[in-house]
Write a structure and sequence with these properties.
The complex is a heterodimer of chains A (about 375) and B (about 240). Chain A has about 375 residues and is of the alpha/beta class. Chain A has a single domain (about 1-385), classed as Luciferase-like domain (TIM Barrel, Alpha-Beta Barrel), CATH 3.20.20.30. Chain A has 14 helices and eleven strands. Chain A has helices spanning about 15-20, 35-55, 75-85, 110-120, 135-140, 150-165, 205-210, 225-240, 265-280, 285-290, 295-305, 315-320, 330-345, 360-385, and strands at about 1-5, 60-65, 95-100, 125-130, 170, 175-180, 195-200, 220, 250-260, 325-330, 350-355. An eight-stranded parallel β-barrel of chain A has the order 1-2-3-4-7-8-9-11, surrounded by eight helices. In chain A, strands 5-6 form a two-stranded antiparallel ribbon. In chain A, helix 4 packs across helix 6. With about 240 residues, chain B is α/β, with parallel strands linked by helices. Chain B has a single domain, classed as 3-Layer(aba) Sandwich (Rossmann fold). Chain B is built from ten helices and seven strands. Chain B has helices at about 25-30, 55-70, 80-95, 125-130, 135-140, 150-165, 175-180, 200-210, 225, 230-240; strands at about 1-5, 10-15, 35, 75-80, 100-105, 185-190, 210-215. A seven-stranded mixed β-sheet of chain B has the order 1-3-2-4-5-6-7, with helices on both faces. In chain B, strand 2 (about 10-15), helix 1 and strand 3 form a beta-alpha-beta unit. Classes of the chains: A alpha/beta (about 375), B alpha/beta (about 240).
């Protein structure tokens, strides 16, 4: 199994008491809540946490993109990725951007160029994540959510064309048109950097990712463990329908993880912080999370009738643990939980959110250290044996 | 499609939220007119055809079916909100089957740096309230959305509205440049408390249209024909009476 350390870079100094009169920390949440004196040092703190994770033995470190919110201060993840690439230049640590939101840009070739630059600068150590962006970002960017899927697929095809076909070539599409697709530099990795698809899961996306022409690793995020495993199983079944057996490296699970000396200590130290992640930073009303057309009418209907889960209702730390949305405990407990899940589907990528919500620096560092000292080495043995 | 009454035809192009009780308004108008209320393509019980991509597609669709809708008679084309935008998009293209244009708080044009009410960002209930000056009456005038079919229609209409009007929000950049092509008599009706399409927008229309008048419905919100149906219908009837044959 490969282990990745993932960071959202939340604005953890938020004045929660003052912020509580807003329904959500997205889209319309005033940026005057951001205090530069408190926010600027967070970049240093968070970058150092990821570098520390790389030094401690994670196989890769990950960033991601979100816009206009207090939940993640990383609207341009490639800026952070380029720092991480340089800081890890004497290692073979991967830098994964999970991911860039393809439909939200009007020129996807910019993404092809930036990824290709990072791939060259890192001598081929990047993983290129492709996402649609969350619903709230269609409010923030003005991109029409009705065309989200179309734009994602067309942007994907265009970027692949730019990376793999000798330029210049033409692209005439419904959303993007270019007479001269001729991207410099070309990507370092051949035929192109690995592409990962992080998603909360949908049958259409799984079918698309599992297609033999793509075989993109599918990373299930922010979901109860049973849903994660169900989606991974659907991926495996879909691969069989396509006539091949999916490799465990095509499956991944992304979740917040916290390890401490004992179960009780781990729960106590993480409780308030994990609740801020799910109940404050991630609380998003359905009109923001699911703008018209972002999901199919059927999924939207199910959501309207059954307003449960992340973004809708408060979840206590206990509930998050029970649903397996948060992996927490002593090294033995955390190891067992991961092993039990791994035994069900054989996923080979574990993306560990090592900082979440308001979790302060000393606890993040302890978490990274205990994970890499006491959890990951034994899991590596298990998965090697399997 | 709904149709009632007899007389010179009015085609009413509705707004996107059709859950409002418009019976009184239609009853008033249908005393002297045949009132024809179609479901737009991509809305209500209509299909969402693949050719439907933007407001121009809907306008051309209506230009093709207008003679059929009205049995070949020229019509008074009336639009409310989204329907007003659509009526203008139709009329800038061709007014040969149109006797007059009646615009109830139409969307479609932008006034520099003037915000409009966002129909997408609040819950359906809060959005509906914002359409009325009197929020208590809003509750009486809106049918509850609870059956499966009503939810389907509501979701479809939201997607239909987003498809046409997400960005630029409920307007087309080109429309204003061509409004001068509309030479039929035009009556603009606007509620004085319109929180969705603030009444400042009326001036943009008046500046661009040759033969237009503004009728302010005092005390009404974005949907004066729902909130004050008798008064609104009376203003429209008097406008139509003055229209040349």
């Amino acid at each position: 199994m490969k282990f990745f350390a993932f960071h959202l870079m939340p604005y953890r100094h938020l004045d929660f008491a003052a912020a509580s009169k807003y329904e959500s920390y997205w889209v319309e949440f005033p940026n005057t809540f951001y205090d530069t004196q408190k926010g600027a040092p967070l970049y240093r703190e968070y970058i150092e946490q990821l570098i520390y994770a790389a030094e401690c033995g994670f196989d890769g470190i990950c960033v991601n993109e979100h816009h206009q919110n207090a939940y993640g201060l990383m609207p341009a993840p490639n800026l952070i990725a380029s720092i991480l690439i340089d800081r890890t230049r004497h290692s073979d640590v991967k830098v994964a951007i999970l991911g860039r939101a393809l439909p939200l840009v009007n020129n996807p070739l910019n993404i092809a160029e930036e990824y290709a630059m990072l791939d060259n600068i890192s001598n081929g150590r990047i993983i290129a994540g492709f996402v649609r962006g969350i619903g709230a970002e269609y409010h923030s960017t003005g991109i029409n959510p009705v065309y989200s899927h179309e734009r994602f697929h067309e942007a994907h095809d265009l970027i692949l064309k730019a990376w793999t076909e000798p330029g210049p070539v033409v692209h005439q599409g419904d959303h993007f048109s270019f007479n001269y697709v001729n991207t410099w530099p070309r990507p370092y990795q051949k035929p192109h950097p690995p592409i990962w698809i992080p998603s909360q899961g949908s049958a259409e996306t799984i079918t698309w990712a599992a297609d033999p022409a793509r075989k993109y690793p599918f990373i299930v995020t922010f979901s109860p463990v049973e849903s994660v495993l169900r989606y991974q199983q659907i991926y495996r079944e879909q691969a069989l329908r396509f006539g091949y057996e999916a490799d465990g490296t095509q499956l991944g699970w992304a979740a917040p993880i916290y390890v401490a000396e004992t179960d009780a200590i781990a729960r106590r130290e993480s409780e308030a912080h994990i609740e801020t992640l799910f109940n404050n930073f991630l609380h998003i009303p359905p009109e923001l999370l699911f703008p018209p057309g972002y999901t199919s009418v059927n999924s939207l209907k199910a959501i309207m009738k059954n307003r449960r889960g992340t973004g809708f209702e408060r979840q206590t730390s206990d509930q998050l643990v029970e649903r397996g949305m948060f992996i927490v405990g002593s090294p033995a407990t955390v190891r067992e939980k991961i092993e039990a899940a791994h035994a069900r589907t054989g996923f080979q990528n574990l993306v560990c959110m090592i900082q979440f919500g308001t979790l302060p620096d000393p606890l993040v560092r302890k978490n990274i250290q205990m994970l890499t000292d006491e959890v990951l080495p034994k899991l590596r043995q298990v998965s090697m044996a399997a | 499609m709904r149709s009632r009454g007899a007389g010179p035809p009015i085609v009413l192009l509705q707004g996107f939220d059709v859950a409002f009780r418009d019976d009184t308004f239609l009853e008033q108008l249908s005393q002297y007119h045949e009132v024809i209320v179609p479901d737009h393509p991509g809305f209500g019980r209509s299909d969402s055809p693949t050719w439907l991509r933007n407001i121009g597609d809907v306008a051309y669709f209506y230009l093709e079916i207008l003679p059929e809708l009205s049995g070949g008679r020229p019509v008074h084309l009336m639009g409310a909100s989204l329907g007003g935008w659509l009526a203008a998009e139709i009329a800038v293209r061709d007014t040969s089957n149109i006797r007059s244009l009646i615009q109830i708080s139409p969307a479609g044009v932008r006034k520099k740096d003037t915000a409009i009410g966002d129909p997408f960002i609040r819950s359906p209930e809060v959005s509906a309230d914002a359409m009325f000056a009197d929020r208590d009456r809003a509750r009486d005038l809106r049918r509850p959305i609870d059956s499966d079919e009503q939810i389907d229609v509501h979701l479809k209409n939201s997607i239909g509205l987003a498809r046409l009007g997400w960005q630029p929000r409920l307007a087309s950049a080109e429309l204003q440049r061509w409004l001068h092509r509309i030479r039929v008599p035009t009556c603009l009706l606007w509620g004085s408390f319109d929180r969705i399409m603030p009444i400042e927008h009326a001036q943009v229309w008046l500046d661009s249209l040759d033969d237009a008048r503004l009728e302010v419905i005092d005390g009404a919100g974005h949907l004066p024909h729902i909130e004050m149906p008798e008064k609104t219908a009376a203003v429209i009837a008097s406008f139509i009476r003055e229209c040349p044959e």
